[in-house]
């Protein structure tokens, strides 16, 4: 393209913004099958669909976000015409809290809802870390009982079972109150110890990756990694470190068919020593015990749902039980090294979030499925759920006489009227290029009508699938012309029926 003065016009370079993805039809169709399985499982538990907008007032997104003086830090924000700050939603939980508070009197309580949609993070992208990604959430608002948390854990397990991951995951459950109790017993209560508490929590969260000795170092003086970088520790005394390590070392062995309730009685009885006299810690243990009793009563063994002290969860709004579903198998990276996928769903109780909008407390609990990570996991295990039947492309009606486009449009309309996917070739190329276009569109059939066919009231129906199969066995061009494989003439009035016959031979249960 040139300007009037003869110089070449500057063209834009097509660039995908960092941290965002394009996805095509096959991947979208496979993901849709996965999402439908999740949706049907959530509905089985009595949850109903809800959709909230992509944009919320920044102040409504919660205290877990960065300081409002820097609203673009961590979230994508902009000012409205009235100078109010708006932000793209950071997750699906804060918008739910706003919706419930705004419609509180009209909603049944407890209110069970699920939402699926994209969320946005204004953070530095990296491998597997995107600025736009999809979540699928299920929440129960208005239920203070830990029976709601138990239901949530059971829903996580059933969802993964129905996705074909039975025996390849574990739902890990902890309680922020127990963590608070352990830290309180270690002398870390009070606002002046907030920094040490945060460092200790971050150390606990690295147990899976660093092991007990690595956590010990991070709870104490600090740790130097393989590259030589040093991470400053929490600086706790040995007695406090021993108490925390004793806590994170508790593991529930899978049930061997014995008395499950007696097992949990003994298991949680041993936790009381690590929380000492902390009232909040003992309350958290009692809640965890109740959750496991309810899960056991529902038939969920500890190889599917079990307590795990290493589960911390980062967001500030969690106030009680926290949980995450971890995949237990590993896969190999590009270098052939085994790597774990880790958590593909997580959540917890957030009793204070809805209450920010109301004078009375509103209890709530729920979890979020990381759709992209879960989809990748299902791809790695070659889940048949993602395969599905390959959807054929549209029937392509070729345009051989430009002055008679209306006649070709009539043929397309006849196919569409009978629920057969069809399209009119809209380019300017000749017949050979149009046939190549039909192949690229994965068209099963091409409709051809030249002037002779039009005069006779006929069309040529070309079975492109059978033609491709025949072409592999035909040696010469002369042989090809003599055979004219998989191509036949029929009256226009029979076109729809003959196309349907061709589609029926190749695709069961579909008309195109």
Automatic annotation (TrEMBL):
InterPro entries: aa-tRNA-synth_II, aa-tRNA-synth_II/BPL/LPL, Anticodon-bd, Anticodon-bd_dom_sf, His-tRNA-ligase, HisRS-like_core, HisRS/HisZ, HisRS_anticodon. Homodimer. Coiled coil: none annotated. The keyword Cytoplasm applies. PANTHER family: HISTIDINE--TRNA LIGASE (PTHR11476:SF7), HISTIDYL-TRNA SYNTHETASE (PTHR11476). It catalyses: tRNA(His) + L-histidine + ATP = L-histidyl-tRNA(His) + AMP + diphosphate + H(+). Keywords: Aminoacyl-tRNA synthetase, ATP-binding, Cytoplasm, Ligase, Nucleotide-binding, Protein biosynthesis. This is Histidine--tRNA ligase. The keyword Thylakoid does not apply. It holds the Pfam family HGTP_anticodon. Its EC number is 6.1.1.21. CDD domains: HisRS-like_core, HisRS_anticodon. GO terms for molecular function: ligase activity. Gene3D superfamilies: Anticodon-binding domain, Bira Bifunctional Protein, Domain 2. Belongs to the class-II aminoacyl-tRNA synthetase family. Residues 33-392 form the Aminoacyl-transfer RNA synthetases class-II family profile domain. It is found in: Cytoplasm.
């Amino acid at each position: 393209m040139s300007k009037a003065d003869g110089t070449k016009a500057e063209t834009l370079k097509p660039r995908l913004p960092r941290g965002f993805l394009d996805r095509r039809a096959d991947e979208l169709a496979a993901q849709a099958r996965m999402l439908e399985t999740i949706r049907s499982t959530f509905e089985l538990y009595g949850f109903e669909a809800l959709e909230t907008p992509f944009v919320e007032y920044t102040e409504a997104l919660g205290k877990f976000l960065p300081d409002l003086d820097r609203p673009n830090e961590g979230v994508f924000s902009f000012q409205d015409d009235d100078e109010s700050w708006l932000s793209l939603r950071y997750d699906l939980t804060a918008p739910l809290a706003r919706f419930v508070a705004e419609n509180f009197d009209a909603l049944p309580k407890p209110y069970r809802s699920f939402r699926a949609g994209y969320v946005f993070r204004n953070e530095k992208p990296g491998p597997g870390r995107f600025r736009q990604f999809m979540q699928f959430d299920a929440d129960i608002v208005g239920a203070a009982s830990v029976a709601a948390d138990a239901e949530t854990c059971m829903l996580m397990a059933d969802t993964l079972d129905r996705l074909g991951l039975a025996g390849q995951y574990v739902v890990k459950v902890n309680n922020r109150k127990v963590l608070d109790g352990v830290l309180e017993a270690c002398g870390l209560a009070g606002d002046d110890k907030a920094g040490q508490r945060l460092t200790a929590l971050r150390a606990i969260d690295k147990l899976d990756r660093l092991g007990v000795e690595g956590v010990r170092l991070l709870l104490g003086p600090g740790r130097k990694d393989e590259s030589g970088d040093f991470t400053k520790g929490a600086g706790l005394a040995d007695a406090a470190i021993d108490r925390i390590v004793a806590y994170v070392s508790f593991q529930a062995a899978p049930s061997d068919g014995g008395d499950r309730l007696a097992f949990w009685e003994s298991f949680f009885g041993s936790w009381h020593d690590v929380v000492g006299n902390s009232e909040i810690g003992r309350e958290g243990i009692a809640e965890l015990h109740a959750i496991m009793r309810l899960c056991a009563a529902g038939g969920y063994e500890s190889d599917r749902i079990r307590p795990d002290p290493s589960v911390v969860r980062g967001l500030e709004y969690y106030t009680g039980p926290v949980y995450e579903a971890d995949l237990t198998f590993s896969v190999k990276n590009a270098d052939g090294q085994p790597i774990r996928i880790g958590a593909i769903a997580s959540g917890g109780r957030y009793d204070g979030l809805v209450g920010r909008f109301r004078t009375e407390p509103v209890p709530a609990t729920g979890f979020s499925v990381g759709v992209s990570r879960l989809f990748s996991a299902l791809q790695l295990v070659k889940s048949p759920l993602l395969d599905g039947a390959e959807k054929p492309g549209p029937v392509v009606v070729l345009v051989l006489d430009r002055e008679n486009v209306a006649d070709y449009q009539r043929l397309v309309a006849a196919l569409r009227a009978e629920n057969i996917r069809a399209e009119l070739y809209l380019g300017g190329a000749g017949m050979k290029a149009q046939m190549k276009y039909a192949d690229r569109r994965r068209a099963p059939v091409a409709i051809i009508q030249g002037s002779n066919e039009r005069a006779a009231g006929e069309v040529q129906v070309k079975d492109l699938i059978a033609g491709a199969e025949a072409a592999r066995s035909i040696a010469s061009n002369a042989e090809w012309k003599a055979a004219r494989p998989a191509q036949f003439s029929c009256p226009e009035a029979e076109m729809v029926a003959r196309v349907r016959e061709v589609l029926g031979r190749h695709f069961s249960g579909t008309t195109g």
